[in-house]
Specification:
Blueprint lengths: L3 E14 L2 E7 L1 H6 L5 E4 L11 E4 L2 E3 L4 E7 L3 H6 L7 E8 L11 E7 L7 H9 L3 E8 L8 H8 L4 E4 L6 E2 L3 H13 L6 E5 L2 H13 L3 E5 L15 E4 L2 E4 L6 E3 L6
Helix pairs in contact: 3-4, 5-6
């Protein structure tokens, strides 16, 4: 599937915790074709002041029902308006956009690191890796226990509980997820089963620090970068990322980038 402007109908829109919501939409075209790491650019048809669409990663999909799930956080008037969308509400989205995660063919063990809503773009990748027989470890970080809204999904996918950290110490390790990343890398190396690949998504300071630790350990690493986007199709240059190869567009050259090329 190339870029396609398609309709999407709200099936459910649930409040999870604080500013976090999970929206389920009926959108067979995206459900059938989305690749892990890609995203959609969604219109806000009930907001006259919100001309520009919003980019959202796909948290989960069901090809049989044609449904997709979007995990989103209210950060402004547009996403706040989305919280009021009821079942049956219709919008449009452009998809499937961007470069997907690209896992080395020989990968036998992988480490996935998600901070906050950055856990969402990793879920389809996790499912893919598990289906391919890869041993997957997941690290999740959040401000507080309630914000670890993806934890159970990852536990179901991997068959083991993710390692978690919270800023306030309400669940798992108190502090930043980078401590868990360092521990996981050391433990894997000591056991003689080092990771072959790692994927990181979350706040930029987390991605910068975690990817640095991972690359220092000699592990191939990719990151999913978030940028404000106007067009979503590479024309407006509003989502530029600085790389060692020059300026790249997060929407079409990314959002997945090899960590080693990103100029933080």
């Amino acid at each position: 599937m190339g870029l396609e402007d398609t309709s999407a109908r709200v099936v459910a829109n649930k409040h999870l915790f604080g500013p976090l919501y999970l929206m389920e939409l009926d959108c067979p075209a995206v459900a059938a074709n989305i690749m892990p790491g890609q995203f959609v650019h969604m219109a806000l048809p009930d907001r006259d002041a919100s001309v520009l669409r919003r980019p959202f990663s796909i948290f989960d999909r069901d090809e049989d029902t044609g449904h997709i799930e979007i995990l989103y956080q209210t950060v402004g008037a547009g996403t706040q308006a989305m919280t009021g969308w009821q079942p049956g509400f219709e919008t449009r989205m452009i998809g499937c956009i961007g470069r997907p995660w690209e896992v080395p063919f020989s990968t036998k063990r992988a480490l996935l690191v998600g901070g906050g809503v950055g856990a969402a773009p990793l879920n389809l990748l996790c499912q893919q890796l598990v289906d391919e027989g890869v041993d997957v470890d997941v690290i999740l970080g959040a401000q507080t226990e309630g914000a670890l809204v993806c934890r159970k999904r990852y536990e179901e996918a991997c068959g083991k509980e993710p390692r978690c950290s919270t800023d306030d110490g309400s669940f798992g390790r108190e502090g930043f997820a980078t401590v868990l990343v360092e521990e996981a890398l050391d433990a894997a190396q000591a056991a003689g089963t080092p990771y072959d690949y790692a994927a990181v998504c979350g706040p930029e300071p987390l991605m910068r620090a975690a990817s640095g630790l991972i690359m220092d350990a000699g592990v191939a690493c990719q990151v999913s970068l978030e940028r404000r986007m106007a067009c979503g199709v590479g024309a407006c240059l509003s989502c530029v990322v600085e790389t060692v190869d020059g300026r790249k567009r997060a929407c079409v050259d990314g959002p997945i980038f090899d960590a080693e090329v990103v100029v933080w």
